[in-house]
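Quick start: read one record
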Amino acid sequence: MISWLERTILKRLSVKAADQYAWLYSVSKVSPGVFWKLAGFSLLATHRKQTSPKLIHLARIGAMQVYDCGACVQIAIDFAVKSGVAPDTIRAALTQEESLPMEEQLAFDFGAATAAADPDLAECIREVRSAWGDGVHAELALAAATGAVFPTWKRGLGIASACDLAELTFSESSAAAQDDG
């Protein structure tokens, strides 16, 4: 049985992006309490003290792209834009444009390398630590790691879809759909 508060929150999410959140309603219905565990996880996933929001979002998007869930990448893009990351910055990172500033590319590459267990991860870690220190390194690693939860969970549920960059949107209007107000 889903509580009134769960229903209210899930209804708000589904009105704003039904195709992105319908699965969460189903999971909450068959597994009472999962919604509140997810709320606790969200606190962990959004932790940031020393790192700029832009770098956190780029690391998370880089990781999510590797985890191959187009819907999750889209949600991450929407949250990044809502947080003030320019859509052109996100597009440049995803398409590996040379115009992307080095620090932004490093954050994106770090997230992707972490998710892929890339052989060059050790070098990427050295670059991150050299550029920003151990605190930022820890926060970027957390962003990359927590980026795995939704794609992995949805894959386990049998509802994940492959990432298709042609279907991703980078607009302010898609981010507005994620707004809580």
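Residues 130 and 137 are 9 Å apart (CA to CA).
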